[in-house]
Amino acid sequence: MGERTLAIIKPDAVKKRVIGDIIRRYEGAGLQPIEMKMLTLSKKEAEEFYAVHRERPFFDSLTSFMARGPIVVLVLEGEEAVRRYRDLMGATDPAKAESGTIRAVHGTSIEENAVHGSDSSETSKFEVGYFFPKMDINSR
Ligand code: IDP
Ligand code: MG
Q1: Fewer CB in 10 Å around end: N or C, the chain?
Q2: Residue 118's CB: how many other CB atoms inside 10 A?
Q3: Would you say residue 51 has pLDDT above 70?
Q4: CATH code at position 86
């Protein structure tokens, strides 16, 4: 069982053909995929998902980027999944991310940084529900 977090393999990483490498890293870290799908967000959906950032200067650019091509969305489960996945991703800016983290390996810029991960247990509930509304909140 354990905690759940929402992961997105962003359009830059899908285009680079590193979906498999990223999922291997999730599994290797004991973050078990329990839901997964591939889709392309509309600009409006990207704006809904990132609504907390709507006042930030990069909002329009970020949501255009996220709607640019297919993404892979997963729910990962494991002990302390939120924190452990944040550690595995590395810092938002790949140039500042610790070596060996997913963003250090696959990120291109502070915007095109390969992956998304929920930043708290609370956020993960909104984010998992956004992409998997029919998912049983309690167990499976
Ligand atoms: P996080 O993804 O590490 O949680 P947030 O601050 O929540 O970082 O920002 C969400 C996303 O917005 C980032 O992953 C990145 O794609 C983009 N972003 C964050 N800061 C900047 C910036 O300063 N310029 C452009 N894009 C940014
Ligand atoms: Mg964030």
Answers
A1: N
A2: 24
A3: yes
A4: 3.30.70.141
Q: Is residue 22 part of a domain?
A: yes
Q: What's the total number of domains in the chain?
A: 1
- pLDDT-derived band at 61 (thresholds 50, 70, 90) equals very high
User: Cβ distance 50 to 116 under 8 Å?
Assistant: no
The catalytic residue positions are 116
- The tokens for 47 are 């704006």
pTM of full prediction above 0.85: yes
Q: Which domain holds residue 50?
A: 3-131
Whether 137 is in a domain gets the answer no
The total of other beta-carbon atoms located within 10 Å of residue 31's CB is: 27
d(CA 15, CA 71): 9
Helices (H), 16-132: 19-28, 43-49, 59-66, 81-89, 102-106, 121-131
Task: Choose the residue to mutate in 92, 98, 110, 120 for probing ligand 1, maximizing ligand atoms within 8 Å of C-beta.
Answer: 92
